[in-house]
Design goal:
531 residues, 6-stranded antiparallel β-sheet, 15 helices, 24 strands, 38% helix
Amino acid sequence: MKKIFFLWLFSLLFLQCASVKEHNAHLNDLISENNLKADVDYTYKKLQRLQPKLYWYISKKELDFKFDSLKKTITKPMTSYEFYKKLSPVVASIRQGHLIVSPSTKILSKSEQKAIKELGAGPFSQFEFEVINDKMYVIKNKSDDVTIQAGAEVISINDQKTSELINEYYTLFASDGFNKTFKRKRISNMFSTFYTNENGPQNSLKYVFKQNDSLYIVSIKRKAAPKKENNGAQMKVIGHEAKINILTRKDKKIYGYNENTKTNNRDLKFIEKDNSIALLKISHFALGKPSLFYEESFQKMQLYKTKTLIIDLRNNPGGSIKDIENLYSYLSDTTYVFTDPFQVVSKTALIEKTPFNKSPLLAKFFITPFYAPYMFLNVHRKEDGNYYASYSESKPKTINKNAFKGKIYVMINGGTFSASSIISSNLKGSKRATFVGEETGGAYNGTVAGIMPTIKLPNSDIKITIGLLVVAPFYKTAVEGRGIFPDKEITPTIADYINGKDPELDWILADIKNSSINSAENQKNKNITLK
């Protein structure tokens, strides 16, 4: 029996290697018109079968027209990537940020991946960029060329105008609804990904920078990574009374410590010496052990009698629904309902494409027999005619015994997306927090995500990630298709980025100080009146 198993495993690995070679060999082959049109039809049928609220932001008539028009533009064979650039804008017109079209790209072997890694940091990763008004600026220069200053504008890359590339990449993906901030933030973080998808990994790039009203042509090559010294890398966080605490391996797991960036995924620090103000930064609602982190953090705030909590959700792309609901139990001031029941397309939608389609074949073999019956039995049709996952029934929940009772501020921007927008919706709707920054990238009234399998188009090998659940917060707004708007709108300037300033946090600290002064004056006047 063991021999049969190992023979089967070896055969599977051999077939996978062979399929990778075949994939790469035919990556730039021309695909016939009929096959491309078949992929268009396949895409729309899959969206109709799997994506709930498909016509949330676009009418069926309009979307039908877009898919029909796309087929009419296919008048000759084209490569998979050329087809991707035609298909993506049509899918993006559905205006769902989690609905992602990914091109078919070269699959690197382990040896190729190792070789690239040994060459060091690529010419993109040696800079941190920020896109403002369709212009891309250097925020941080990590290359060996010290003449490139923070604030330098990137005019072109390999003789392609950056502004034209940005506008082209904008058409390849969507935000939730009619949001105005998400795309800029995503391009800032993923410009290199879009460029590499089309041009492949680059060992060197020719940049044209503009700084001090002059143009500079610079060639940036891969930069060898410095040799790591095995000195037992330690992580430091600012804690009570500004003491430096060295985190153990257990602590690193709780905080979700990133060895590459040397930062915590979740971090808590106290700004004032009296610990009256706490700053909670959450980069992603994943990684680490959130339950233990929140329990520890809110116990500290109770112990230190913290009066004001500032939560930083800027550039937080989302993550676990369980995570944000757990956090909300510490922030709400009353019994709450967190989300609506999760709407799905049909009783079989959660079975047709499972979240395990990227898992190894052996894992699928063991998981699917249990997953499919469970999902089928837990999806029911309600009076409104729609199907809902019954395991997501909305029930009132009590707040945590260590729930924070003071003033809450939340910092948001276009990178605040998905789960971080869901919790922001409930905090905004319940009037529990004051919001500072920019409109969130995620929509106030929810999104289509939750379970997100990937389908592969049969002829072009293009992949499309589709959300299967409508995840909607308890609180809603009448303004459909927009994010959570801040109570105080602040958009950092290029000068703020260059100088390392945080105008949102500065405003909050000033507001806390003014509120404290006003409170003291009111108390003083009250005492005088009583006399």
